Amino acid sequence: MAQTPPSIFHYYSFSSYSSTIHVPTGCKVAYQTAAIWQEFNIVEEDLSDIKTPVLSHEEKKAPCYDLQGRKVDYPSKGIYIHNGKKVLLK
After folding, report:
1. What range does the domain containing 78 cover?
2. Fewest CB atoms less than 10 Å from the CB: which of 9, 31, 33, 37?
3. Does residue 71 fall inside a structural domain?
4. Under 8 Å between Cβ of 6 and 27
5. What are residue 14's phi and psi, to 5 degrees?
6. pTM for this prediction
7. Total domain count, the chain
8. Contact, 28 vs 42, CB < 8 A?
């Protein structure tokens, strides 16, 4: 959701740069020209419909999927599909 690529210190490294990151519309060039971030597959999309969910006890039982449609049993921070909607888990 960051419009400006976050700073990453030079001593921090990723084990794989093959991951895809989704950035807000209009921000792809900023990520493509930023150190470290330019190594990733960058997809620009409208993220404005992503909301932080408030889930009832019953909703928490519903399955959660990543953006590639794979079921996630224990979601951590990130963007997921839950009950047919994109949600951001903080």
Report:
1. 49-90
2. 9
3. yes
4. no
5. -100, 150
6. 0.51
7. 2
8. yes
Per-residue pLDDT tens, the chain, 90 aa: give them.
788 888 776 555 666 667 788 898 999 999 999 888 888 889 998 877 776 655 554 555 678 888 888 898 888 788 888 888 888 877
Indicate whether 69 and 80 sit together in one domain: yes
Which is it for the CA torsion 56, 60, 61, 67, positive or negative?
Answer: positive
* Pairwise CA distance, residues 30 & 37, whole Å: 9
Strands 20-24 and 41-45: parallel
Same domain, 24 and 43: yes
In the sheet that holds 85-89, the strands lie side by side as 71-72, 64-65, 78-82, 85-89
DSSP-assigned letter for residue 28: H
Asked whether 4 and 30 are in contact (CB, 8 A), the reply is yes
* Residue 8: inside a domain: no
- Give me the amino acid identity at 3: Q
The encoded tokens of residue 53 equal 């969910």
Do 53 and 87 share a domain, yes or no?
Answer: yes
